[in-house]
Each structure stands twice: as C-alpha cells, then as structure tokens.
Amino acid sequence: MSFFLHKSNCLLRTIYPDFWWKSDDSEPVIYLTFDDGPIPEVTEFVLEQLDKYAAQATFFCIGDNVRKHREIFYKVIEAGHYIGNHTFNHLNGWKNEDVTYLENIQRCQQEIGFDTPFFRPPYGRIKKSQAAQLLDHYAVVMWDVLTGDFDQSMTPETCLRKTIQYTEPGSIVVFHDSWKAWPNMRYTLPRMLSHFAERGYLFQALPQPVYA
Q1: SS3 of 193, please?
Q2: What are the two backbone dihedrals, phi and then psi, of residue 178, each rounded to the nearest 5 degrees?
Q3: Which of 5, 44, 78, 206 is deepest in the core (most CB within 10 A)?
C-alpha cells in the first residue's frame, strides 16, 4: 500500500510557500489537473468526461508522451484545456542533479512547442535549489487534494470517497491520465464531476500567473 496524504497539510505549505497549493476562491470552483499523459484511450476518456460538464482542466504532460502521442496532445489543446510541464521522463528531483533535472524540463518544453507558465514536479519531489531556478519562469503547482488514483491497492470506491471528502472551493485536485491510474480514475472522475456539478461547482483550468 502506498503512503500519501490525500490532503496537503499546513507544514508542507509552510516549507514551500512559493509553490501553488490551493486557490483562495470562496466561490464554488475546483481546479482539476491531470498528470502523466497524454495517453491514448485514457486521455481521450478524460476529455469526454470533461466535455460532459463543460469542465476545463490543466494537463501536466510528460514530454516523451507528447512526442509519442502528439495527436492526443493536440486534442487536449483543441478542447480548450491548459498545458503544464511535467518533465520529459517523469524525473524525481530528489534523485537527480540540478543540471540534469533542468535540462529534462527544457526538453519537455521543446516537445510542448510553446511557452507554458505551469510546472509540476513528478512525485511532488523537487529540491529548493531546483525550484529557485524555475520560479522566475514557472508557477510551480502542487495540489490541495491528491486523489490517489495511482494507488492500485486502493479501491475505486475509496478513491472517490476520499476525493469528495477533501475537495472544497479553490482546491487544486490531481488525477492521473495514465494506465496505472486507469481503474481508479475511470470510476472516480465521472462520479466526482457529477457530485460537484449537482452542487453548483464549476471546473476550471488554473488561472494564468500574473507574469505570464
């Protein structure tokens, strides 16, 4: 069983105050984000579900997946969603030297083909020295709610329950459009969208940073 926090806590936000964890919205708005795509079938399923609710999201793409599945990548853009950088090879910042990590981010940016103001570190793991070199160019986006859809020991029902339990106005919520997360994500996403749409929530892409 994986250990992770479904809800980011105050300690993490205090240690990394320059990262984006949650929006201050008091209005019923949720910021959906999807990591690790684009992937055929999986990302296309996500796009279909979002379209049903006129939901806009931010997709943090792996550069190598953009390279391999460019048609799917274009579908995400054409549907009006935003794109974020998630490194080229899903690198763990803690396990890589700064120069290697930053070059991998740049390689992803080249595959994306246009400037994106958003970066999310894979696994949420990034050294402060790496972040210091990114913050002038990117909003480093973490999360308020981690669905845990990647945890194959967790049932889809638990994934849905925890996601609904911790999501609130302004939450940045992480799903994964990956095959590993597919069993939990395909169950949780449509039900989560339905639950909050019935309560008057809107689903939006991340606001553009003021310097973008």
Answers
A1: helix
A2: -135, 160
A3: 206
